[in-house]
Amino acid sequence: QISGQEISAAGQLRLMTAQHHAAQQQGTTQGTYQSRTVLNNVTNNTATNRAAQVVGRTAVQTAVANKTLPANYNQSAAVRVAAVLAKSAAGQTVGHQQLPHQARFFGHNPNLKLPPDKCLLGCVFLIVEYDRSPDTIKEVPTWKQIILDHGGEIEPSYTLRLTHILCQTQKHPLVQQGLRDGKRCITAYWLSDIITKQQLMPPWYALHFPTPYSEERPCRQMLISLTNFENDERNRVKFMIELTGARVTSYFSADNNILVTRKLEGKKVKKARDINRPVVNVQWLNEILFGHLSCMYQPENVKYQQFNLNNPFRVDYNLVLHLMGAWKIPINVTQESYDRVRNNPVPVKRKRPRPNANFPDQENNDLSTADIIITNINPPPIEYRPCVMLSGFGLGKEEQRMVLQLGGTIAKNYSDATHLVMKESVRTTKFLCCVSTVKHIVNGEWLKDSSTQHMFLGEAIYTIEEVSVDQKVICKVHKILSNPNRHELFKGKIFYVTPGVTHPSVFVVRQIIESAGGTVEKQRRSLRAIQELEPNTYIVVASNNDLHLVADLIRSSYGK
């Protein structure tokens, strides 16, 4: 028996099918229009890029004080483009690219209501570029599975039945072909946000659109900082800055070219005003990601000085008309596809483990001892009780239970640990911190066998002999543990870690240094103060993004 709701859904599908056939009659005309639009944009963008290439840390006149324009910058061209954008901001007509007020964009046909967990039904994806990037190649299989789980389909090569192309840039030949054929070209950020919302929607963040750049990104020699953004918004702005090619700094100094903020308040904003550096909103980043580079030379434009916007990430679709043409036609779903989803049960959603902000991590968090029964018939005295640090066991709840049942304790920090239990013989942060202080570094079998025997066994046969650092370096663990002074490796050494160090983080690097007897200072000493110290006493750990912070040391003879 079919319910009234199902009859309604089937009727909607039949109506959509009729609409789909009618839309196909207009397909040729629509495709021709989109082809012309794309070709016009490609021509215009090429001319604009030639006229406004950014070389070095750029700024103009009032934009970035004491910075010079690139030698090949065509100022008159930039002024003309800026005038067009200013008209756009004021709501005036800008040639043939003005977005009609009645233009609407669609995901699915609005007449059809689909289950949220099947929000990609009717969507056929091709994934390009991501499968060649070392940063994302491992993620692609997961993305494909997510698409399939939510009703979508995957094509291994370009076909006309495609509806979406998941890509990073507009430079890939298949992306350009897809734009000519009216395909929706979007990024993995769009896919992530769609899965979160459980609803097919047109792109609404700049991050959802593929960029018009490949390797030569316009801000590649700029330093940009951000402020007054929190949580997801902060991460979003950080990703946007990185996509422009700029380096993101957690601080703001005279070396920074520009500051992106949500509101005009805070220490960074005051600092930027004091040293005459531009302060802009997110719209400035939007336009760079859309290929409108004139904004780099006019950050004081009123468009980029509005800090009371309800939605600072709002997209001006006038700037990406060639990417939005395909979204004017809703995606229809066939009766067969809908029946397949209706007849298949909704999969049970599994709860994802929530990341824990505590350090070191979950595998060394407290396990409730209320239900723990000590199985060790002869538990060691308190002063000899093993204090165990776990590494590589994930949540490690079972391993924690074994330790507690044997009468041991779980280490709260590295200095408390007497035993490091490693699942694999590879270098980890815990290994680097514990190697200076623990008495024993053993494999997971020591814990399993001890649990089986209901007592802590001797460590000798379970000791890890070597740890792989990389293909060329092997760490001889037993030699290090036999050194009675290993906890003094950095004794008398003073370190400064620049804020751009991220892998591992500054906090972790500090832990490693201090566990070996070193001292970490929060502020870098002056070159003169460093030179007054004994040779090889002061050590700076810096990332490539922070080389400007140690430029004076590099220029001097220090460290040579």
UniProtKB/TrEMBL annotation:
Natural source organism: Schizaphis graminum (Green bug aphid)
Domain BRCT: 214-289, 400-464, 485-560
Alphabetical keyword list: DNA damage, Nucleus
Pfam families, per database record: BRCT, BRCT_2, PTCB-BRCT, RTT107_BRCT_5
TM region positions: none
Protein name per Swiss-Prot or TrEMBL: PAX-interacting protein 1
Gene Ontology biological process terms, A to Z: DNA damage response
GO cellular component: MLL3/4 complex
Gene designation: PAXIP1_1
InterPro entries: BRCT_dom, BRCT_dom_sf, DDR_Transcriptional_Reg
Subcellular location: Nucleus
Subcellular location, principal: nucleus
Keyword NAD: no
Xref: CDD domains: BRCT_PAXIP1_rpt3
